[in-house]
Structures are given as structure tokens and as C-alpha cells.
Amino acid sequence: MAILTDLKDPRVQDVTVTFVEMTPDMRQAKVHVSVMGDETKQRLSLSGLKSAAGYLQSKVAKRIDTRYTPRLEFVLDLGVKKSIQIAEILDRVLPKTAEASADQTEEDDDQSDDASL
User: Fold this and answer.
1) Does the global pTM surpass 0.85?
2) 31: left (phi over 0), alpha (psi -120 to 50) or beta
């Protein structure tokens, strides 16, 4: 929430935290983020997050009660971007007739249900 509400850095926009990896001793946290936009926007957002890491660490320190506050490291998560690319490739590669036949099957099922009533 601190990334969304507290950071006023104009570089940090359209950022989603996908998951966080903690070391067993809880001294370091690798924060995986997804940034919507082109590569330039992603790099800018990542550099904005890295410059705000100290501020975000202090926010974390206030929320958790541990001996050490984890050092935050921000990493770009390309999983969402790759899944969108895969979906686009599949749309281009898969035949469109499969969708049409699936729609036809649904219509046939609906008509048979109406006939049985």
C-alpha cells in the first residue's frame, strides 16, 4: 500500500507487487514487481523504487516487530508480460474454427435443454 499511496515519485506508476521472497534470517526481502508499460517505463519505475527503498524499509519497520528490518531489493517480474505475449501468440497460432465450433456446441446444448423443458 505504501507504494501506491505514499510514494510521490512520478517515476513510480502502474506498479504491482507480485510476490516477495524473504531470506530465512529475514534480513533481506526480494520484492518482485510488475510494471505495465514499455521497457523505458519499467526501468524508470524500478529506479524510482530503488531510490525509495530506504523510505519503504522504514514503513516496514513500523509495521513489523522483528529484531532486524529486512533490506528491500526490487526486481522486475516479467511473468505477467510473458503470459500476455504467450496469449497473443496462441491467438495467432490456434485456428479460429475451434472457437466457432465451441460456440456452436454451447448453442446446441442450450437448444437441447430448452427442448427437454
Assistant:
1) no
2) beta
